[in-house]
Design a protein that fits this description.
This protein is of the alpha/beta class. The chain is built from eleven helices and 14 strands. The structure holds (2R)-2,3-dihydroxypropanoic acid. (2R)-2,3-dihydroxypropanoic acid (DGY) binds next to loops.
Length: 342
């Protein structure tokens, strides 16, 4: 009988589904009993002989793991939309399908990205900390002043599903201009229905801006808010480097909810401490978790969150269910419904 390995405890409905399949004799279920990650040696050992692996972002799937698993492996199903932790080429070359969980986390991740942008732009953590530790006041005219969203130019780097959902949300904030860069110049179709009509104070009507495909360098020069929602690939690795931060406005806010690997964090630290840019909000870092001693965490103008883009109960459950769906199709020898191509 085929064996599947689940590398950590998932949501209860997903685990119940997986266990009921095992109870019905459809497969042998090998589950890591903890909600934390499976140590690498254990993963290598228990992958051996498995037909399907249900994994998360912390499990690196590379040649070593595929060798350890063996030629019967049919599918690697990750509970994430991002798949930079999976060697897709190596999987494809060995006939192993790779599945991910697009769509179901788009809204939650876009909500978090906009929250991070607003919190960073309006200094919420610093302001809240002042209330708690007796640094509230004396009030003065520019105390805790941040940046306006309304009327601003927003640049989205990587206008895929999540970037477009961020754009749709920001359309409601009366922004002045919406730029985007990325591989797909036609991506603006994703946000076209984001157009929001505003009734101005004088009764006239205006609409939210039409997204404009813009070369990256120009986007960086012109944007008040630069939001990264692109995938981590060989092309985007460390793309936010010293030279790119140098192009940005000294008043700019940089927001990253994509992957830490797209940012040169030393360059970001330098940009934030020398006034090259005004502030940054990061939901992702490299590595994760980031050491509490990391220099970025000493800065008041840098808000760092622990990769919680998709962290709502419903979203995480939907991701788990989608990953189980991919796993089931894969072990049955069918095309996974949400597959990743090399
Ligand atoms: C993903 O699914 O890739 C997200 O980063 C998880 O929050």
């Amino acid at each position: 009988m085929q064996r599947i390995l689940v590398t950590r405890q998932l949501t209860e409905p997903a685990m119940a589904l997986l266990r009921s399949g095992a109870a019905e004799g459809k497969y042998i279920l090998d589950e890591w009993a903890s909600s934390g990650p499976m140590p690498r040696p254990e993963l290598l050992r228990r992958a051996a002989g498995a037909s399907g692996l249900l994994i998360t972002l912390s499990d690196k799937i590379n040649g070593e793991l595929l060798d350890a698993a063996g030629p019967q492996l049919k599918v690697v199903s990750t509970v994430s939309v991002g798949y930079d932790h999976v060697g897709v080429h190596e999987c494809t070359a060995r006939g192993v399908q790779v599945g991910n969980t697009p769509d179901v986390l788009t809204d939650a991740t876009a909500d978090l990205t906009v929250s991070l942008l607003l919190s960073t732009a309006r200094l919420l953590p610093t302001a809240a900390a002042c209330v708690k530790n007796g640094r509230w006041g004396p009030w003065h005219i520019t105390w805790m002043c941040g940046a306006d969203i309304s009327g601003s130019t927003v640049g989205i780097v990587g206008l895929g599903r999540i970037g477009a959902a961020v754009a749709r949300r920001l359309a409601g904030f009366n922004i002045g201009k919406l730029l985007y860069s990325g591989r797909n110049p036609a991506a603006q179709a994703l946000v076209n229905h984001a157009t929001v009509r505003f009734v101005n104070d004088d009764g006239s009507i205006s609409s939210s801006p039409i997204p404009q495909h813009t070369p990256l360098e120009q986007l960086l020069r012109e944007s008040d808010f630069v939001i990264a929602t692109c995938a981590l690939t060989d092309d985007t690795k460390l793309m936010f480097n010293k030279e790119r931060f140098a192009l940005m406005k000294p008043t700019a806010t940089f927001v990253n909810s994509a992957r830490g690997g797209i940012v040169d964090q030393d360059a970001l630290y330098e940009a934030l401490t020398t006034g090259r840019i005004a502030r940054a909000g990061l939901d992702v870092t490299s590595p994760e978790p980031l050491s509490p001693q990391h220099p970025l965490l000493t800065l008041d103008n840098c808000l760092v969150l622990p990769h919680i883009g998709s962290a709502t109960f419903n979203t995480r459950n939907a991701m788990c269910m989608r990953a189980v769906q991919n796993l089931y199709a894969g072990i049955a020898g069918q095309a996974v419904p949400f597959g990743v191509q090399a």
